[in-house]
């Protein structure tokens, strides 16, 4: 795996290249702060720790995200690792950068590892909670990608856990957001650790194919360039793209290891000016070669659920080879690489309000499209837009996330954990302070319920403030049972009296 180490100078140069009028002074100050905060700290790879925030910031700058995100990337481990607190960050770097750093820090603190399944659920919810600012998710991805690049230095059990999380949690989220480049990277890094034998097998298949077909693909590219020029389709780029290893692995499984059924091991990609040129290019290709039936896909007219757009066609070309072509505009290309992040690229001016609005619309759109697909029901569950408007996320002292409606109280929380906890709860601590059971909880609260095992039933008065249907039902049921029990007791007593 290539390891990416960048100097501050390289970061600065990239920022100068990618941004108009970036605040280089602020960037330098962030570097100074980071240097100071991580001074003397060494990563397991043997490098100075500061290489990590540098790599994260570099990646964010490459993605073309706002300069504030790049600076926050430099600072992302500072609060956790040093005495340099979030208030110091705010004072020097302003509210926006401070809120980014704060969100990333909280994301780390609140997530406890308690078995992959549970962890997955937690992290999904965390992503939701944090998704009110999508930039935090990009920072998290950049952080994770660098940690994967340096994973070899970690002990084996940690490698396995981090790789599994990346494959099972981070990659699908990147996919949902349409960030196929990042999704592919996450998957391939993780794949190498989780199934090293299969990874090597896919790699050697790919190596052989590239060796076999490399020359042929170059000839095809040259030919297509000429054909497009003759058809006066200007400014096109034509190049070969090699399938990612994990994606190949999944396809091999689907086709029972029959390589001949996989047409896109090496595909030819054509990037053109506009949509018109996409169809024109497709016409040029189809005039020259015969398309394989059933393999022409118009994802421009009918985009994939994550927004992906392109024209795909597979053809029998002159040399008897079968090749897949992917045709798209530059904009579609960026969208497929960066997903929703594409909208945030190079948009220095857009305010936070606008950014969040777009993010909401984006999610609403994804949700709508997913709703029509049964397979995506699971994704739908964590993409639900209403969680942003009227849900809160609170934590158990062990770090599990419980999501509740706005206005929920410790009683709702107790019943969400277990009805026995609800029935027997007598008091609670919110963020380590004793509170009344009718306290309204807010997102991020850590709630601990105190129970009394001798308590027989919930207090019917709780119905005055319990918010969730679940808690209300349990309280009503339990109270009804108590009354019935009492009534039965009374009847029984009377009977005895009679007899006696
Ligand atoms: Mn980090």
What does this structure look like?
With 500 residues, the chain is an alpha+beta fold. The protein folds into three domains: 8-194, Hypothetical protein af1432 (Orthogonal Bundle), CATH 1.10.3210; 197-341, Beta Polymerase, domain 2 (2-Layer Sandwich), CATH 3.30.460.10; 389-488, Beta-grasp domain (Ubiquitin-like (UB roll), Roll), CATH 3.10.20. It is built from 20 helices and eleven strands. Strands 1, 2, 3, 4, 5 and 6 form a six-stranded mixed β-sheet that branches. Strand 7 and strand 8 (401-405) form a beta hairpin. The model is unreliable at 110-114, 346-357, 366-389 and 493-500 (pLDDT under 50). Manganese (II) ion is lined by residues 52, 76-77, 143.
| Helical residue percent band | 55-70%
The stretches of 5 or more residues where confidence is low (pLDDT under 50) are 110-114, 346-357, 366-389, 493-500
Relative strand content? 5-15%
Task: Name every ligand kind in the structure.
Answer: manganese (II) ion
Based on secondary structure, the structural category is alpha+beta
CATH topology of the largest domain: Hypothetical protein af1432
- The multimeric state of the shown protein is single chain
């Amino acid at each position: 795996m290539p390891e990416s180490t960048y100097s501050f100078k390289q970061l600065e140069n990239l920022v100068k290249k990618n941004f108009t009028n970036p605040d280089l002074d602020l960037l330098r100050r962030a570097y100074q702060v980071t240097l100071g905060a991580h001074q003397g700290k060494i990563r397991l790879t043997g490098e100075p720790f500061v290489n990590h925030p540098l790599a994260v910031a570099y990646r964010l700058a490459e993605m073309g995200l706002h300069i504030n995100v790049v600076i926050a990337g430099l600072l992302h481990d500072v609060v956790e690792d040093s005495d340099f607190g979030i208030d110091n960050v705010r004072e020097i770097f302003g509210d926006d950068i401070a809120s980014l750093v704060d969100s990333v820090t909280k994301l780390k603190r609140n997530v406890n590892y308690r078995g992959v399944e549970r962890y997955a659920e937690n992290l999904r919810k965390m992503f939701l909670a944090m998704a009110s600012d999508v930039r935090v998710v990009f920072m998290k991805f950049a952080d994770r990608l660098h940690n994967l690049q340096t994973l070899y230095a970690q002990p084996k059990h940690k490698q396995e856990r981090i790789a599994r999380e990346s494959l099972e949690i981070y990659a699908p989220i990147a996919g949902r957001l349409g960030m196929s480049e990042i999704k592919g990277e996450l998957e391939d890094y993780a794949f190498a650790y989780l199934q090293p034998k299969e990874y090597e097998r896919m790699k050697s298949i790919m190596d052989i194919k590239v060796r076999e077909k490399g020359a042929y693909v170059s000839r095809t590219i040259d030919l297509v360039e000429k054909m497009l020029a003759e058809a006066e389709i200007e400014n096109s780029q034509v190049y070969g793209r090699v399938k990612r290893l994990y994606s190949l692995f999944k396809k091999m499984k689907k086709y029972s290891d029959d390589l001949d059924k996989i047409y896109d091991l090496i595909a030819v990609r054509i990037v053109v000016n506009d949509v018109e040129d996409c169809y024109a290019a497709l016409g040029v290709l189809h005039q020259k070669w015969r398309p394989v039936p059933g393999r022409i896909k118009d994802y421009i007219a009918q985009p994939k659920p994550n927004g992906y757009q392109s024209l795909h066609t597979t053809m029998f070309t002159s040399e008897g080879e079968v090749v897949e072509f992917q045709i798209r505009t530059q904009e579609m290309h960026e969208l497929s690489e960066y997903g929703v992040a594409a909208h945030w690229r190079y948009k220095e001016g857009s305010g936070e309000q606008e950014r969040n609005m777009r993010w909401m619309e984006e999610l609403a759109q994804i949700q709508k499209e997913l709703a029509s697909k049964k397979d995506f029901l699971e994704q739908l569950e964590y993409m639900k837009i209403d969680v942003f408007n009227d849900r809160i996320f609170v934590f158990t002292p062990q770090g599990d996330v419980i999501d509740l409606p706005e206005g929920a109280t410790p009683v709702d929380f107790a019943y969400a954990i277990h009805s026995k906890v609800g029935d027997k709860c007598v008091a609670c601590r919110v963020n380590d302070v004793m509170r009344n059971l009718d306290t309204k909880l807010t997102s991020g609260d850590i709630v601990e319920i105190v129970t009394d095992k001798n308590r027989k039933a919930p207090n019917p008065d709780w119905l005055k403030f319990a918010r969730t249907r679940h808690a209300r039902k349990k309280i009503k049921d339990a109270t009804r049972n108590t009354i019935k029990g009492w009534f039965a007791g009374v009847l029984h007593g009377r009977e005895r009296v009679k007899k006696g």
